[in-house]
């Protein structure tokens, strides 16, 4: 399956996906890395890895809808079938989300449904939870609310600060996202009537 990764920043999850997709039996091929920020460090890293890149600068468009139409056109031009959001920092309109329904994944750095939104590690420390982690979910119009494909948990340690905790979670993100994309791209996990249906043994 042909996959595009959407980023806005450093792209460490993107790198882990590109590395996983190099395996000959991996069920997804990364055909494009696109960013709404032309200066995203991840774009240069993707280009260096020989992947097609595209910058669709949201500031160049009159509104969200015009930006998304341009992004959608570029994705279709590259024959993209699945979309993976990896640190992509634009809220998507219901039009775009519906156009890619069941074919768009996001990774969120918390054990959803806890701690939606930003600063999830600060939220976790403030709440005093002893387990934290990351979630890969299908994207629906409501932010960080989509059906869950996969999760990984890490302990919260007494001496943790935001940096220590986010680093521990990030290690798991880099493992979880390639595994979750493999499930979806191979059809072993799919969205059906608002729920994720898993193939036997997945
Ligand atoms: C990750 O923590 C991801 O979960 C969140 O934004 C961060 C992106 O990091 N949505 P990177 O750009 O993949 O390094």
From TrEMBL:
Molecular function terms from GO: phosphoribosylglycinamide formyltransferase activity
Site positions (Raises pKa of active site His): 144
Residues that bind N(1)-(5-phospho-beta-D-ribosyl)glycinamide: 11-13
InterPro entries: Formyl_transf_N, Formyl_transf_N_sf, GART
Any one of the GO BP annotations: 'de novo' IMP biosynthetic process
Reactions that this protein is recorded to catalyse: N(1)-(5-phospho-beta-D-ribosyl)glycinamide + (6R)-10-formyltetrahydrofolate = N(2)-formyl-N(1)-(5-phospho-beta-D-ribosyl)glycinamide + (6S)-5,6,7,8-tetrahydrofolate + H(+)
UniProt-annotated binding residues for (6R)-10-formyltetrahydrofolate: 64, 106
Active site residues per record: 108
Pathway as given in its UniProt record: Purine metabolism; IMP biosynthesis via de novo pathway; N(2)-formyl-N(1)-(5-phospho-D-ribosyl)glycinamide from N(1)-(5-phospho-D-ribosyl)glycinamide (10-formyl THF route): step 1/1
Formyl transferase N-terminal domain sequence ranges: 2-181
Entry-linked SUPFAM superfamilies: Formyltransferase
Pfam (any one): Formyl_trans_N
GO cellular component, one term: cytosol
Entry EC number(s): 2.1.2.2
Keywords for the protein's UniProt record, in alphabetical order: Purine biosynthesis, Transferase
Classification via PANTHER family: PHOSPHORIBOSYLGLYCINAMIDE FORMYLTRANSFERASE
Protein family (similarity comment): Belongs to the GART family.
Function: Catalyzes the transfer of a formyl group from 10-formyltetrahydrofolate to 5-phospho-ribosyl-glycinamide (GAR), producing 5-phospho-ribosyl-N-formylglycinamide (FGAR) and tetrahydrofolate.
Protein name: Phosphoribosylglycinamide formyltransferase
Taxonomic source organism: Methylobacterium variabile
Organism ancestry: Bacteria, Pseudomonadati, Pseudomonadota, Alphaproteobacteria, Hyphomicrobiales
């Amino acid at each position: 399956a042909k996959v595009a990764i959407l980023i806005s920043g450093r792209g460490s999850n993107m790198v882990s996906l590109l590395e996983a997709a190099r395996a000959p039996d991996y069920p997804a091929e990364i055909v494009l890395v696109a960013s709404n920020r032309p200066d995203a460090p991840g774009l240069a890293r993707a280009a260096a890895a020989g992947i097609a890149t595209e910058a669709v600068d949201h500031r160049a468009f009159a509104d969200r809808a015009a930006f998304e139409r341009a992004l959608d056109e570029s994705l279709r031009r590259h024959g993209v079938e699945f979309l993976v959001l990896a640190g992509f920092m634009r809220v998507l309109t219901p039009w775009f989300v519906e156009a890619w329904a069941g074919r768009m994944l996001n990774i969120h750095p918390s054990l959803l449904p806890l701690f939606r939104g930003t600063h999830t590690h600060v939220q976790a420390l403030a709440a005093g939870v002893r387990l934290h982690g990351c979630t890969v979910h299908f994207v629906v119009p409501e932010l960080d609310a989509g059906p869950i494909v996969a999760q990984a948990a890490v302990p919260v340690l007494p001496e943790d600060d935001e940096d220590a905790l986010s680093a521990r979670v990030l290690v798991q993100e880099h493992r979880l996202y390639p595994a979750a994309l493999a499930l979806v791209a191979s059809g072993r996990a799919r969205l059906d009537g608002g729920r994720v249906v898993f193939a036997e043994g997945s």
